[in-house]
Amino acid sequence: MSASGGTRAIVAALGANLAIAASKFVAFAFSGSSSMLAEGVHSLADSGNQALLLIGGKKAQREATPQHPFGYGRERYIYAFLVSIVLFSVGGMFAIYEGYEKIKHPHEIEHWYWPVGVLVFAIIAEGFSFRTAIKESNPLRGDHSWKEFVRRAKAPELPVVLLEDFGALVGLVLALGGVGLALLTDDGVWDGIGTLCIGVLLILIALVLAAETKSLLLGEAANNEDLGKIETALVDGDTVTRVIHMRTLHLGPEELLVAAKIAVRHDDTAGQVAAAINAAESRIRTAVPIARVIYLEPDIYSETEAAKGADPEATPGGPSQHPAEH
């Protein structure tokens, strides 16, 4: 992902949410609308989330150390996961609590023009933030659908901002509907129902974010396109005749680890094999620039061994070498 593009989207969202949060709290103070209070807390939580994403991006730039030899690229995944927790707890759960209380103890909305005016302003501001996130995401999304983009993206910032802004826009429409129905019917229960719907929406978005960032934290392989490029780059048809097996792992959004066992000819000298490995590493980095950590193991390909299939006990996450006795 373009780091500058992600940063622009985050900064745009942060500026919009701070302005919107202030206006919503003012509207709540004058009108007493629980939807305004829930939306104000939502925007404040979103502002904190964008600050977390900026902090994560900054920390991820630290150089590798002996204790963390593969660097700190996954800091961005950790902070994106924290965003989902904040959105769930501060945004979603608070809105559900506030909506429940308002349904139990409804009261009339005063100075209706405050919440309506703020909601219209907020929709415009969130629309600007959402438009910025879409504009920055489109070059990376390519021909994929938005659902595929959110699920496949290795950089968490743009999907997080997209989902937050989408949730904010839908939440604002729900809040406007709740306030409008409360004014039309003179029944504050509708304001509480709108707040409750906002809470459910935020929790659903938080769960989606948590699931996607959890997958990134566990470690995802390169996408199919990059896998094909790496396999093609590995085989030169001369010294390296085939890929016996390969594993890839994202150490961060822009850093990929490649580990592969490659087949070489049985009569090649050590010098020829070493030169072939160096050449293969160079071809991989040219084909997939984010492949920065590469480990290649030369071997002699055997059809007999290949026919046996993969050894499950040699696979990471496979059966234990020493299973417990029952």
How far the N terminus sits from the C terminus, by CA atoms, comes to 49 Å
Q: Order of helices and strands, N to C?
A: HHHHHHHHEEHEH
How many alpha or pi helices? 10
Q: Could you give a short account of the major beta sheet? A: 3 strands, mixed
C-alpha-based Rg, rounded: 26 Å
Instruction: Please tell me the overall pLDDT.
Output: 84
Regions with little confidence, pLDDT below 50 for 5+ residues: 320-326
Got a strand count? 3
Task: Tell me the fraction of residues in β-strands, as a range.
Answer: 5-15%
Structural class: mainly alpha
Main-sheet strand order equals 1-2-3
Shape: elongated
Fold and architecture overview:
This protein is mostly helical. Helix content is 66%, strand content 10%. The chain is built from ten helices and three strands; from the N terminus they run H-H-H-H-H-H-H-H-E-E-H-E-H. The chain is elongated. 40% of the residues are buried. The model is unreliable at 320-326 (pLDDT under 50).
Structure at a glance:
The protein is mainly alpha-helical.
What does the secondary structure layout of this molecule look like, with pairings?
Elements lengths: L2 H29 L2 H26 L15 H30 L8 H29 L4 H7 L4 H29 L3 H30 L5 H11 L5 E13 L2 E10 L5 H18 L3 E9 L3 H5 L19
Parallel strand pairs: 2-3
Antiparallel strand pairs: 1-2
